[in-house]
Amino acid sequence: MELVARRYAVRLNGMTALAITKLDVLSGIDPLRVAVRYRSREGAIFDRFPYHQSILHSAEAEYKELPGFGPEIGACRGEADLPPQARAYLDFIADFLGVPIALVGVGPGRDQRVNCHGTRIGDSAQCRGRAPGGSTQRARDQQRWMRADGGGDQHGRLP
Q1: Which of 45, 50, 105, 130 could form a disulfide with 55 if both were Cys (CB 3.0 to 4.6 A apart)?
Q2: How far apart, in whole angstroms, are the C-alpha atoms of residue 107 and residue 76?
Q3: Does any domain span residue 114?
Q4: Residue from 25, 28, 106 nearest 71 by CA
Q5: In what order do the strands lie in the sheet with 60-66?
Q6: Which domain holds residue 85?
Q7: Using CA atoms in the order 69, 122, 119, 101, what is the torsion angle rounded to 10 degrees?
Q8: 159 domain-assigned
């Protein structure tokens, strides 16, 4: 899974939660590789999405390997039913992207899903699907990010 572009999409679109689908297709794959940064052909490291597409064309992703999980998760209906390695994988994604995971698809059926109620899967003590401080705090954070990155207008739109 490529996380750098997803983190950019989360920030750009003001996402407050994610739905992860098809987690079941990763069953039995070990290790699971996730892209966490880019390296340009000149050797520059980009922890954030590159500012120009020409950089992205010649860049290569750098991966972090996470442990895989068991062969079958289609019967899981709650966070506690998921294997610990699957929860760790989802926690890593939520932490990296900075948004909670609200729903995880574990099979092709409509009922094959896990509803997550925490700010990250496995942490249901937090408010349901919202970052601490609620959406108003998130909007202020996004405006700060836009100003810090030098992009966007007063409404948070990028050029």
Answers
A1: 50
A2: 9
A3: yes
A4: 28
A5: 45-46, 32-39, 60-66
A6: 4-149
A7: 30
A8: no
- Of 20, 2, 14, nearest to 130 (Cα)? 14
Quick check: is 155 in a domain?
Answer: no
CATH of residue 103: 3.90.170.10
Residue 119 forms part of a structural domain: yes
Listed residue (83, 80, 85, 99) closest to 20, CA to CA: 99
Core vs surface per residue 10-24: b (16+ CB within 10 A) or e: bbbeeeebbebeebb
Local confidence pLDDT in tens for the 159 residues of the chain: 999 999 999 999 999 999 999 999 999 999 999 999 999 888 889 888 878 888 888 889 999 999 999 878 999 999 899 999 999 999 999 999 999 999 999 999 999 999 986 545 544 433 333 343 344 455 555 555 544 555 554 454 444
Whole-prediction pTM: 0.72
In degrees, rounded to 5, the angle at the alpha carbon of residue 107 between the alpha carbons of residues 75 and 79 is 50
